[in-house]
Write a structure and sequence with these properties.
Order of helices and strands: EEEHEHHEHHEEHEHEE
Radius of gyration: 18 Å
Shape: globular
Strand content: 15-25%
Number of helices: 7
Structural class: alpha/beta
């Protein structure tokens, strides 16, 4: 690994908060909250703590609802239930929200490109997060996107990856007690070639801090569930792309696992 990866981290949680330096005159983003896995059938008092922290932006890292279904009317109903949770409604009023999906708001547990309702689910997802009708996200396959904030010396680039729409099928582990196993197959893809090319272009844009958001973990590969490590060649491709583009200030933000974790790649 080159020195450009010294600050590459992976975080998984429901809610974590962090602060970046403040420049009062130009008002860049200074308070970003992020999290994942909000089951609409459970109480969600955590939103009160998030709102009290006064974030300027919230990053939803997947599983905004739990609606594994092929019935799109049922999916709309579940999103409606989430939208009735008072804390979440207060968050929407308090700050902008950027979002990616994971499997349960995508529509299929551990689902990938084989999910037959992915196009319909994409539009429902974007409707829930108030994506503009003329947005490119509505007219291209997948929900990946990028946003930048702040002046050049404090620019934050937020890269939203789609690790569902294009992703090849996982390989089940028939030997150990783990659900999936790593497969070194160059025909497997996590992002699809179009999204890979797009990501390369984004990493060449100037930014001091880059938050790369993925619904599943990137660094941790020991648990045997969904993670980038199940496709080691794709994860290596990501790391090498960061090196090749000399993208500095990279931080991975991931969801899915229902607990907080901090992992570091150093070397």
């Amino acid at each position: 690994m080159s020195s450009t990866l010294l600050k590459t981290l992976s975080l998984t949680c429901f809610i974590l908060l962090f602060t970046v330096p403040l420049c009062a005159q130009e008002q860049p983003l200074t308070r970003i909250a992020f999290g994942s896995c909000a089951n609409q059938t459970y109480p969600q008092p955590i939103w009160n703590s998030v709102i009290d922290w006064n974030p300027q932006l919230f990053l939803f890292l997947g599983d905004a609802i739990y609606a594994d279904t092929y019935d799109m009317d049922s999916m709309r109903v579940v999103y409606g239930q989430m939208n009735q949770i008072s804390g979440y409604r207060r968050l929407k009023a308090a700050c902008p929200i950027l979002a990616i999906w994971d499997d349960h708001d995508y529509g299929e547990n551990d689902g990938g490109a084989s999910y037959t309702k992915r196009d319909e689910a994409q539009q429902i997802f974007l409707n829930f997060f108030d994506e503009p009708k003329n947005s490119k996200r509505r007219n291209t396959p997948g929900i990946y996107d990028v946003k930048t904030y702040g002046p050049p010396e404090q620019r934050i680039q937020i890269i939203l990856l789609d690790v569902r729409y294009f992703r090849s099928t996982w390989t089940e582990d028939q030997i150990t007690q783990k659900r999936y196993r790593a497969v070194y197959d160059p025909n497997l893809t996590m992002l699809g070639e179009t999204q890979w090319a797009w990501l390369a272009r984004q990493l060449q844009q100037p930014a001091r801090i880059r938050l790369i958001c993925s619904g599943i973990q990137i660094i941790n590969d020991e648990h045997g569930y969904e993670c980038w490590g199940n496709m080691p060649l794709e994860r290596d491709r990501l790391f090498k792309l960061i090196q090749k583009t000399q993208a500095s200030g990279v931080v991975f933000l991931t969801g899915d696992r229902h607990f907080s974790e901090l992992s570091v790649i150093d070397g």
